[in-house]
Specification:
With 248 residues, the chain is α/β, with parallel strands linked by helices. It contains 11 helices and 7 strands. A 5-stranded parallel beta sheet has the order 2-1-5-6-7, with helices on both faces. The longest helix is centred in the first third of the chain and has 16 residues, at 29-44. The protein is globular, with a radius of gyration of 17 Å. The two termini are 32 Å apart. The structure holds adenosine-5'-triphosphate. The site of adenosine-5'-triphosphate has 17 residues, from helix 2 and helix 8.
């Protein structure tokens, strides 16, 4: 229904995917609102990937490839927008996939698991009784994680995560990689590598980088990480927003 020459065509397609995900019970109503916050930042970024987002993507791929027990945490928005890329990133990095919801219901967990299965995931952690471990210092259902997944992970990938949980994961000693369009969010600030870009652009790029770096020796990957500074990355991302990302 959306004309291809509409100036917001891509953005409108993404919205349609989310609304469809909402109707299929993958996405929570609150997830639609969270997307709106992301869209506002994307508008300011000129809906384009910045040079620093590309550098952060490379560092993110290196961190995932260097991990001993990487886990990709998947919420409803991620499952609705980039299910194929989540499965591909797990394949490229050897990471496990875990469903991890802010608004947890077993029905949604299963709907998300089934969607990931449809795209070829062999295993999906964190569903129902599997999420029996606790993130310390967090209250209610938000703290439940899989003892074989996020709880035991050394590197956790948490696209579009809430700040409390990201901070709690960092306190547990995890290395955290995120994708978040808001460079000022607590998640963006607390993470070790923050890709300030739209999930729908960042995930295909991250998969591509992971395949490109896969098989490189550890020292080359460690060098990529050593050269990356997340504070600088966030400061430059803010600059890109101020300039409408015209020069990137
Ligand atoms: P925090 O708790 O980290 O300070 P918040 O309360 O804004 O931030 P949430 O609403 O839980 O966080 O999470 C949504 C985050 O994800 C927001 O920072 C939003 O900008 C970002 N976001 C939403 N949609 C996208 C998207 N498609 N791509 C990238 N980031 C997105």
């Amino acid at each position: 229904m959306i004309p291809a020459d509409h100036p917001r065509a891509k953005s409108l397609h993404t919205r349609e995917k989310l609304v469809d995900g909402f109707r299929r019970n993958l996405v929570a109503a609150e997830g639609l609102i969270a997307h709106g916050r992301g869209e506002a930042f994307d508008y300011l970024l000129g809906e384009r990937t910045s040079a620093q987002a590309r550098a952060a993507t490379k560092a993110a791929a290196a961190m995932l490839l260097l991990a001993k027990r990487p886990v990709l945490s998947v919420n409803g928005n991620a499952a609705a927008l980039v299910p194929k890329e989540i499965v591909e990133l797990a394949q490229a990095t050897g990471a496990r996939i875990e469903v991890n919801l802010f608004y947890r219901t077993e029905e949604r967990e299963k709907a998300i698991r089934d969607e990931l299965w449809r795209y070829g995931a062999k295993e999906v952690l964190g569903v129902g009784g599997r999420a029996s471990a606790r993130i310390p210092e967090l209250s209610s259902e938000r703290r439940r994680v899989d003892p074989e997944g996020i709880f035991a992970a050394d590197v956790v990938f948490v696209p579009l995560e809430d700040g409390d949980r990201t901070e709690a994961l960092v306190r547990m000693g995890k290395r955290v990689v995120t994708i978040d369009l808001n460079p000022l969010s607590r998640t963006a600030v607390a993470a070790h590598v923050t890709i300030v870009d739209n999930l729908v652009r960042a995930m295909p790029a991250l998969v591509e980088q992971a395949w490109a770096l896969e098989g490189k020796d550890r020292r080359a990957l460690e060098k990529i990480l050593a050269d990356f500074d997340n504070k600088k990355n966030l400061a430059q991302s803010l600059k890109a927003i101020r300039s409408g990302n015209k020069r990137a």
